[in-house]
Design goal:
Helix content is 55%, strand content 11%. The protein is α+β, with helices and mostly antiparallel strands. The protein folds into five domains: 156 residues, Beta Polymerase, domain 2 (2-Layer Sandwich); 149 residues, Nucleotidyltransferases  domain 2 (Four Helix Bundle (Hemerythrin (Met), subunit A), Up-down Bundle); 103 residues, Hydrophobic Seed Protein, CATH 1.10.110; 140 residues, no CATH class; 104 residues, 2-Layer Sandwich (Alpha-Beta Plaits). The strands form four sheets. Strands 13, 14, 15, 16 and 17 form a five-stranded antiparallel sheet that branches. Strands 3-2-1-4 form a four-stranded mixed sheet, sandwiched between helices. It has a four-stranded mixed sheet with strand order 5-6-7-8. A hairpin with a 4-residue loop joins strand 5 and strand 6. The radius of gyration is 33 Å and the shape is globular. Belongs to the GlnD family. It comes from Parvibium lacunae. Keywords: Hydrolase, Magnesium, Multifunctional enzyme, Nucleotidyltransferase, Repeat, Transferase.
Length: 859
């Protein structure tokens, strides 16, 4: 229970902290170092006051550790404390200590504390590198100074600098892996992400452990930093420190992530303005990414320098590679410090040698030389024929392509050589399914294409690996991947703009006309295949014919398929699924067959599917004519839109009861290996699609695909592919449940409930997709095609279906496509209102209102 004394101290601390924060924010040039120092001293005073008031034995010690011990107390960071006890008193009851810790919480401090003796500290430090690191920065607040001095002494004696370095190195790798080894996520953690403040702290920790220095100035005096690097390091550290402080103050809590919710507020706090087509938040983030990139470079340089000090190797073998480079313990070393300045071609040769010799990295001297000489890559450099041959050789290499492209990007060389690429470094993408900046997405796509060539990754996408094994020039796909999104952020169609960049690159680098045309085609049409597969009816031979006319050759089809798979896989881990894989592969095979001289026509496709379905039925023991009566109720469109295996499966449970009045529901594990395939069969009813959507919504299922069909005798015969995106579901265990519940829902025919507005995701609220509807007659004038785009939200599909019911619009088929938080659905509709322009306008307005409930400006 909070005492009056605690409440009084709590109020005083809150007021003093707020005054400190207000003073900082009011400064024209805020001093972030001074804020952290003054905040630390403020916390010190209140902790010591509480310590004194609790009358603890003078043999006890109150010690600040971690960031607080370092004197960097961010506005809402935890206060890390060690209460040090004399040996032998660890297990005794300590009511005074319990009261003290309660007091710390009561006065409004977020405390992280431990109560230990010196021997316990040593044991924990030996087991946990994070404990050892926190104790490395201990600072006495109150109590027995001798005990604290003794603790520091024994910790120093126990500390093995070499082991500490390796442990922190492994810890950093794990941290990098947690954040996908990139600082370029759209919501980076400015403390923990690669390139964040933690990278700088790691340097100082290992330097301190190695007794090389406690701050940047000492490291510079030891020759580990150049004067220019020291200046750059201090500038970027100040920038990251100010961002972290602003995050805490804007959110009024411990928040280290640059989340979308406060990116704009942070940018405005720093006085940034929109620039061209970039939002103010994008201006902030590009600055952040640039700083994070510099921090990663300095982290690499300094850790290598410290490693060299900690692990000196006498007479290390230096193996010459050519007149300018040598290899030292698996690292590339330049033989003259000013190599890159007097012979700039070496800036590309360095990466080529990394590939040829399979080296694991570059020495500090080499990294530093490249970093400081990259400005030598100018227009004259890019126009040089030898340099162009070198860059092309990098892409045509047998190994190390992705590693070296990433290294070139990290060191700023790739953007210098390809100016259009430089413009998209750190460029954010607000389309709700890309989770990386444009440059990182591009490099992920190159990596994905590259993996299709590697036997060790053949199990991931066997069909892609098979196609790539027979593709004559895989490096053309790497070029297409580099350029496919390179024009994003310029305004206009990035595919059209990008193909111009790609054509200029290909001509400048001496590619022949056929190869140039292929790369340009891939860049221009890199979205076409996914659009056709996911938004059009690929069972329609006319659709296949038009797509085949677009790709023209099997070589272009193969290349486009491989690039499309790699591109979708490179957007986000959540976007790719088995359904998209099947649609793309089906489109590829149908188009390949058409290009091979066997164009699909309706009659041949109809006959082939029936014959294959009959073969499967015979294998399952059905007599030759058992299915005839049922199939007579189905027309050509049914057979064209369903696979033979699906036709056979549905026939087996319907052939003997296709005239029943009871709803028939059958579910099975989807053949694609993900989710459930569900067939619904019953006498048709106007609101059937809405009822089914309502049930799936109630069970948190998402519809990936819907095949809506009506038999000749008026039965609804619909097939759905559903998945659960939010719960860990064992689909096999819920098949019977889904069948019985959906059957009961359709049998009861209760009135439809009003749609409930689902809650938008945090990402969708800040970057909503503008709602759009395109409604037009089909080519035969029989039905109307409706394409809609909107921000996804729970219950949206049911709300759309409900609106169709209210306007007596019947659904003939549906293509349901969700890309992250973005919905792109297509429907084939029929209804009397399409003959009445005013009714149609009213329908579109109401449907648009449903979509815009999640649209821009709405919460």
């Amino acid at each position: 229970m909070t005492t009056p004394a605690s409440q009084e101290q709590r109020d005083a601390l809150r007021a003093q902290r707020q005054a400190l924060f207000n003073e900082y924010q009011a400064q024209a040039k805020p001093n972030s170092v001074a804020l952290l120092h003054r905040h630390t001293l403020l916390i010190d005073r209140h902790l010591c006051l509480a310590w004194e008031q609790h009358g603890l034995p003078n043999t006890y010690s109150l010690i600040a550790i971690g960031g607080y011990g370092r004197g960097e107390m961010y506005p809402y960071s935890d206060v890390d404390l060690l209460i040090l006890l004399p040996e032998g008193e660890e297990n005794l009851p300590h009511p005074a200590l319990s009261n003290l810790v309660s007091r710390f919480w009561d006065i409004g401090l977020e405390i992280g504390h431990s109560v230990r003796s010196i021997s316990e500290c040593l044991i924990e430090a030996s087991k946990d590198i994070s404990v050892q690191t926190a104790l490395l920065e201990s600072r006495l607040l109150a109590g027995d100074r001798k005990q604290h001095v003794k603790l520091k002494k024994v910790l120093r004696q126990q500390l093995n600098p070499q082991q500490f370095f390796r442990a922190k190195e492994l810890e950093q790798r794990q941290r990098y892996a947690k954040y996908q080894d990139t600082p370029y996520s759209l919501e980076p953690n400015c403390k923990e992400s690669p390139g964040g403040l933690r990278d700088l702290q790691v340097i100082l920790w290992v330097a301190k452990a190695a007794q090389l220095g406690k701050n940047w100035a000492e490291l510079a005096r030891k020759g580990l930093l150049t004067r220019a690097e020291l200046k750059e390091l201090r500038r970027t550290e100040k920038q990251l420190r100010e961002i972290r402080i602003a995050l805490h103050l804007q959110s009024s809590r411990h928040e280290d992530r640059l989340v979308f919710d406060i990116q704009t507020a942070i940018a405005q706090h720093f006085g940034l303005k929109p620039s061209g087509s970039k939002r103010v938040s994008e201006v902030l983030m590009q600055r952040y990414y640039k700083a994070a990139k510099i921090v990663m470079q300095l982290n690499t340089l300094l850790l290598q320098n410290i490693e060299a000090q900690l692990f000196p190797i006498e007479h290390a073998n230096l193996s010459p590679l050519d007149t300018d480079f040598a290899e030292r313990q698996g690292l590339l070393e330049i033989r003259q410090p000013d190599l890159f300045e007097h012979r700039p071609a070496a800036l590309l040769e360095a990466f080529r040698l990394m590939q040829i010799h399979g080296l694991r990295g570059m020495t500090t001297t080499t990294l530093r030389g490249i970093w400081h000489a990259k400005h030598r890559i100018d227009r004259a450099f890019r126009d040089d024929r030898y340099h162009r041959q070198l860059f092309l050789a990098l892409l045509q290499a047998e190994k190390g392509i992705v590693h070296e492209l990433r290294r070139m990007n990290q060191l700023g060389v790739l953007g210098r050589y390809l100016p259009p690429f430089r413009r998209i470094v750190g460029q954010m993408q607000h389309d709700l399914f890309h989770v990386y900046t444009v440059d990182q997405h591009i490099l992920f796509v190159v990596r994905n294409v590259r993996r299709f060539t590697m036997p060790e990754h053949a199990h991931e996408f066997p069909f892609c690996s098979q196609l790539m094994a027979h593709f004559d020039k895989p490096w053309l796909l790497y070029i297409a991947a580099l350029f496919h999104d390179i024009a994003k952020g310029r305004g206009g169609d990035h595919s059209a703009l990008g193909k111009g960049d790609a054509r200029r690159f290909c001509r400048a680098h001496g590619l022949d006309k056929a190869d140039t045309d292929l790369v340009v085609f891939l860049v221009e049409h890199h979205l076409t295949m996914s659009t056709v597969a996911q938004k059009q009816d690929i069972s329609d031979p006319d659709i296949i014919a038009r797509f085949a006319h677009c790709v023209k050759t099997e070589r272009a089809l193969t290349a486009l398929y491989l690039l499309t798979v790699a591109d979708i896989r490179g957007t986000s881990p959540k976007v790719w699924n088995a359904w998209k894989a099947k649609l793309l592969e089906d489109l590829f095979r149908l188009t390949q067959r058409h290009l091979g001289g066997s164009p699909s026509n309706i009659q041949s496709a109809f006959s082939e599917r029936q014959a294959e379905a009959e073969r499967i039925l015979r294998l399952n023991g059905l007599s030759a004519d058992a299915h005839h009566a049922f199939w007579q109720q189905l027309d050509v469109s049914y057979f064209l839109r369903h696979e033979p295996a699906d036709i056979a499966w549905q026939t087996r449970f319907l052939y003997s009861r296709f005239d029943t009045l009871e709803p028939i529901i059958r579910a099975r594990l989807a053949p694609i290996g993900e989710g459930l395939q569900i067939t619904v069969y019953l006498p048709d009813q106007p609101d059937l699609f809405a009822r089914i959507c309502g049930y799936f919504e109630s069970r948190s299922f998402s519809i990936l695909d819907a095949k809506i069909y009506t038999t000749k005798q008026g039965y609804a015969f619909d097939t759905f592919l559903i998945i659960n995106r939010t719960l860990a579901v064992e689909y096999r265990d819920i098949i019977a449940l889904v069948e019985s519940e959906l059957q009961q829902r359709l049998r009861e025919q209760t009135p439809l409930h009003q749609p409930i507005k689902g809650r938008l995701s945090r990402l969708s609220r800040h970057f909503p997709v503008p709602a759009n509807i395109v409604l037009q007659p089909d080519s035969k004038g029989q039905y109307h095609l409706m394409d809609l785009t909107a921000t996804d939200r729970p219950g949206l599909l049911y709300a759309i279906a409900y609106t169709l019911v209210q306007h007596r619009v019947r659904l003939r088929s549906a293509k349901i496509l969700t890309l992250g938080e973005r919905v792109e659905d297509s429907f084939l509709l029929e209804g009397d209102l399409f003959s009445h322009p005013k009714q149609q306008i009213k329908f579109e307005q109401e449907l648009l209102a449903v979509l815009e409930e999640a649209g821009p400006g709405k919460r």
